Structures are given as C-alpha cells and as structure tokens.
C-alpha cells in the first residue's frame, strides 16, 4: 500500500517542482548568454549605458 502512495507523491509533487526549477535555471542561463552576446555585438553604442 505504501508503493502507490510514493508514486502519487512523486507524480504530484516531485516532478512538477523539478520541472519548474530546471526551467528557471534554463531561463537564467539563456538570459545571461543572450545579454552577453548582445553587449559584445553592440559594443560602443550609447544605448548600452541605459541598460540595467
């Protein structure tokens, strides 16, 4: 009886939390890489000073 309960907990709690956390890491990495590339390709632009 404990086996099905563990499977339900994993399906309802563990998998969605893992997906959300890994999605957050992927978004942060993608944002960092894109910002770094754009900063390098537009070096010298006066508009870069307005970015935070």
Give the helices and strands, then pairings:
Blueprint: H1 2-41
What are the main properties of this structure?
mainly alpha; 52 residues
Task: Explain how this protein is built.
With 52 residues, the chain is mostly helical. It has one helix spanning 2-41. It has one helix and no strands.
| Helix and strand sequence | H
Sketch the major β-sheet: none
Helix share, percent = over 70%
DSSP summary: helix tally: 1
Number of strands: 0
How would you describe the oligomerization state of the chains in this entry? single chain
Short description:
With 52 residues, the protein is mainly alpha-helical. The protein is built from 1 helix and no strands.
């Amino acid at each position: 009886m404990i086996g099905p309960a563990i499977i339900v907990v994993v399906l309802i709690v563990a998998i969605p939390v893992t997906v959300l956390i890994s999605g957050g890491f992927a978004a942060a990495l993608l944002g960092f890489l894109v910002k770094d590339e754009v900063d390098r390709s537009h070096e010298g632009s006066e508009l870069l000073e307005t970015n935070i």
